[in-house]
TrEMBL record:
Record-annotated HTH luxR-type domain positions: 91-156
Gene Ontology molecular function terms on file: DNA binding
Name under which the protein is recorded: Response regulator transcription factor
GO BP, sorted A to Z: phosphorelay signal transduction system; regulation of DNA-templated transcription
InterPro entries recorded: CheY-like_superfamily (IPR011006), Sig_transdc_resp-reg_C-effctor (IPR016032), Sig_transdc_resp-reg_receiver (IPR001789), Tscrpt_reg_LuxR_C (IPR000792), WalR-like (IPR039420)
Domain spans labelled Response regulatory: 1-62
Species whose genome carries this gene: Nonomuraea cypriaca
Keywords of the record: DNA-binding, Transcription, Transcription regulation
Length: 159
């Protein structure tokens, strides 16, 4: 009986729940990026990257931020379409638990802004933004900022 092996991201997420994971891989295609992000990785970096890029990814993950290798950004952009089916309805239902201000913060986070940048745009301190992001992730049941941003994307225009 042949069994399909679990992906590295699935194994890492299951074994290290709550620990930020940066996936280092040679495969930056859309499907691998999507699967890794769905499993909650904090970073996604290609093996062909420069060492300083890997260091930036690890530091971002340690700081609670997400990092995507610029080389995979076009694949992620190809994934940016909202889901009008059950997943989209579920995303909209989950987002309904957020306050208007939490949604404002999430929208800025979904643009890829750091806590400092969100704070500047919304006239908040970095500590206040961190508190909001933590509350948002808890309410949405998301492991990281990338998952929350994908949830917002899935909800579509109403999100």
């Amino acid at each position: 009986m042949s069994r399909r092996p679990a992906s590295a991201a699935t194994c890492a997420a299951a074994e290290l729940a709550g620990t930020p994971v940066v996936m280092l891989t040679a495969f930056g295609d859309e499907e691998n990026v999507r699967l890794a992000l769905q499993q909650g990785v904090s970073g996604f970096v290609l093996k062909s990257c420069e060492p300083d890029e890997l260091i930036r990814a690890v530091r971002a993950a340690h700081a609670g931020q997400a990092y995507l290798s610029p080389a995979v950004t076009r694949h992620v952009l190809g994934m940016v379409s909202f889901d009008t089916g059950e997943r989209g309805r579920d995303a909209a239902r989950r987002l309904a638990a957020l306050t208007p201000r939490e949604l404002d913060v999430l929208r800025e986070v979904a643009e890829g802004l750091s806590n400092v940048e969100v704070g500047r745009r919304l006239h908040m301190s970095e500590a206040t933004v961190k508190t909001y992001v933590s509350r948002i992730l808890t309410k949405l049941g998301c492991a990281n900022r990338v998952q929350a941003a994908l949830l917002l994307r899935d909800a579509g225009p109403q999100g």
